[in-house]
Structures are given as C-alpha cells and as structure tokens.
Design brief:
The protein is 9% helix and 37% strand. By secondary structure, it is mainly beta. It has a 14-stranded mixed β-sheet with strand order 7-8-9-10-11-12-13-1-2-3-4-5-6-14.
Amino acid sequence: MRCVATARAALGFAAAALVGGCAPRALSPPPVGERRDAPPLVAALDVYDAGPSAVRSTGSLRVSGSPSADFGATVVAGLGLRFDAVAGPFSTPVFALACRTGIECRGFAPSRGRVYVDEGATWEPLLAEILRGRVPRLPDAVPSGSWNTLAGAPVLALANRKGWEERIDFSPEGDRPARVFLGRAGRRPDVEIRYGELGPPVGGHPFPRRVVLWIEDPGRAYEIVFRRVEPVPPGLDPGLFSLTVSPEIPEERVGGSDTWVNEDLPLWPLPRGEAERPP
C-alpha cells in the first residue's frame, strides 16, 4: 500500500515517510491469544528495564512529514534530559529541549522565535525512557493479564488505579520488548512505541538501534535511530538540563493552548486537556 506523507511546517523540515511505510491511522493491537503466566514476563521486563540509567547518544530523528535531523541527547534517570537537534548541510539548530525531572521542560524552536515551557515536565518520563532505550512504566501498575499472540509472541498487560493501561508485546523469544501500547482503559491506545533490533550493549545492557514513537492525537510518528550510545561519565554538570536563551525571547506556557496544540515540535507532544495528561 502506498502512503503519501503530508507536508508540514515543522521547524523548517520538508516531507518524508517513515521507515516501513506510514504509521497506522488507528492503533489496533493484535487480539488476545492463549493465556500464560505473568510473573516470568514481569521478570523479563524488569531485567530489560534495569539499565542503563544514564546515557548520552547521537543519532537521527525523523518526524512524520519530515526528513531526518541529527541529534545529541543526554538522559539521567531521575535528574533530567537534554535533546538538541540540527539539520541541513550547515548543522543549523532546529530544536532544543531541556527537562528537569518533575520540575519543568523548556523547548526552544529558533524558527518559531519562542520558548515553550511545560511546568511539571509532563512528558519527560516518557521521553527519558525512550531515549534510554527502556520501556516507560505506568506508576503503581500491576499485571492485569498475560497471553500469547496468535503468532506465539508473549504479551504482558499492566494497569493502574488511575484508569491507564499498558500492553507490552515481547519478541517471539520473550527476552525483550518489541512494541508497547499506552492508553486509557477501554479505549484504543493513544501511544505506540516500537523497538527495533538490538545494537551493541551499553554498560552491559541491551539497547535498541531504533525506536519509533507513534502519538495517535495529533497523528504523528517519531523515528529515533541511535548511531552511538554510551554511559554518562561521572561529573556531569546538572546545568545541562537547564535551557538558557536570550531574555528577549518570549515564553509560552503550554497545556490546553490552541496555539500549542497546533505546534509541530519534535519529541514534545502535549495532551489537549488535563484529563488526558499522561499518568
């Protein structure tokens, strides 16, 4: 099936399709198959998510309707993340994002001439886990089911009391996650994360070569290809997770603003309302 990427004015990028074709219009996880025990899958997920806790990486980012940009990222679990993207033959800065865990995220798009401020760093936990090559976990979630797909791959479902569900589809061998679905209970998932084949280990832990994040609303995919990943060395300056720009650049507080909803900034999708904020 051919798919045509819609051109967008995302930070000066032009149109391009994702690897493997366009992402699905509506997320539809494969149906439930034969039931199986959850504890071995929980243990396998815990092993995979055990590390690395702090990494820095370089690679490429492609957003739906955009060609690739080069990025550099640093993530330290529980502290924050920094993500800088450049594009074109002159490595022109197109986006910078700095998050302090639980405090705030600040994103700067030079072409927009403004800084976007997300108080509370709403999406930082999701982005940090993806950039660490790990699986985002729902707070206080417990197993709600486990089974094999019709093709025989293991699946683990988790849920919490806030009404959020998470489904982890493992590789056929059951040793690593292949896809993760996140969303409200009883609805189609809002988010899908696909993990590609493993690259070289990082700090003795497996790490994917590629991760694709699909956000159902506003219908956008983000493909991250890791070229180089290494543990963060000791002595990291925490100031890296603070974004400094000229005080003359205006700021916009995000969350519910129609202006913000229509912004097409990479790696910072924000829900439309408080009820839909991630868990």
